[in-house]
């Protein structure tokens, strides 16, 4: 029997009681997961070492076994050097890959497509300024959460929207994010996106979707009473399909 489920992507949306990351769809988020796992490895080693030292000291050096401490065991130059130098080396080992990833994610490399994202109370607006409609205006639309009463079979409650953000795969996409009223946060975990939408300020981020799919996110900044009801849906499609969609949206 074929183990088809081993090749199936399940987590482009949050799962109930999910513990851990969603599946990566961009190089940036792959780097984030790798850095997390690397730091987690150091954390496990440090935790076991600290607990082993604490247990050893409590067990072997209690007042019953050592009522009088030897005066030459109260200080140890070599030991103090070890517990000073070792954390410094570990911090350096963590710092270099984290700085490298930070600068790589901040770099905007000749974007193929620029999309403006505006956060409102409580929905998102998108503008494709690189394309224009038949009337000569930019392609823009609003994206609202689909109410429970209007959900169709296969759609997700509190996550699906009426108008998705459509992007092509294998293309550098630049998002320019701002807010219209209060501070929002544009976050899509599978794409490694999380950027504040601040009124009066333009923040930018770039990403490259490596595979077609539909990716779900939500506003991650408390922005009012309906903060939990302004989801984000990004659909990555092939370049021909994207051009077909652009053609239909421009009419």
Q: Biggest β-sheet, characterized?
A: 5 strands, mixed
Any guess at the CATH architecture of the largest domain? Answer: Sandwich
Q: Can you tell me the CATH topology of the largest domain?
A: Immunoglobulin-like
Count every helix, treating DSSP H or I runs of 4 or more residues as helices.
3
Q: What distance lies between the first and last C-alpha atoms, to the nearest angstrom?
A: 49 Å
Q: What structural category do the secondary elements indicate?
A: alpha+beta
Strand arrangement, largest sheet?
A: 3-2-1-5-8
Strand percent estimate: 25-35%
What value does the average pLDDT take?
86
Principal-axes shape call: elongated
The multimeric state of the shown protein is single chain
Number of strands: 10
CATH domain class name of the largest domain? Mainly Beta
Unreliable stretches covering 5 or more consecutive residues: none
Domain count: 2
Give Rg in angstroms.
25 Å
Instruction: Name the CATH superfamily assignment of the largest domain.
Output: Cupredoxins -  blue copper proteins
């Amino acid at each position: 029997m074929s183990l088809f489920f081993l090749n199936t992507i399940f987590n482009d949306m949050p799962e109930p009681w999910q513990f851990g990351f969603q599946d990566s769809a961009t190089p940036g988020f792959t780097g984030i997961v790798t850095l997390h796992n690397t730091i987690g490895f150091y954390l496990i080693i440090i935790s076991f070492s600290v607990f082993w030292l604490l247990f050893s000291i409590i067990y072997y050096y209690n007042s019953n076994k050592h009522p009088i401490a030897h005066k030459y065991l109260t200080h140890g130059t070599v030991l103090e050097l070890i517990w000073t130098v070792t954390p410094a080396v570990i911090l350096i080992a963590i710092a270099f890959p984290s700085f490298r990833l930070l600068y790589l994610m901040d770099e905007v490399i000749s974007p193929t497509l620029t999309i403006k994202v505006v956060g409102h109370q409580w929905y998102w607006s998108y503008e494709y300024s690189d394309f224009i409609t038949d009337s000569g205006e930019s392609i823009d639309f609003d994206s609202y959460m689909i109410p429970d009463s209007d959900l169709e079979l296969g759609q997700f409650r509190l996550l699906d929207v009426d108008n998705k953000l459509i992007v092509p795969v294998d293309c550098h996409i630049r998002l320019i994010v701002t807010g219209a009223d209060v501070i929002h946060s544009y976050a899509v975990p599978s794409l490694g996106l999380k950027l504040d939408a601040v009124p009066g300020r333009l923040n930018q981020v770039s990403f490259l979707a490596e595979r077609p799919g539909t990716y779900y996110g939500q506003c991650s900044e408390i922005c009012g009473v309906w903060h939990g009801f302004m989801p984000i849906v990004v659909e990555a499609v092939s370049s021909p399909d994207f051009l077909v969609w652009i053609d239909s949206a421009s009419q």
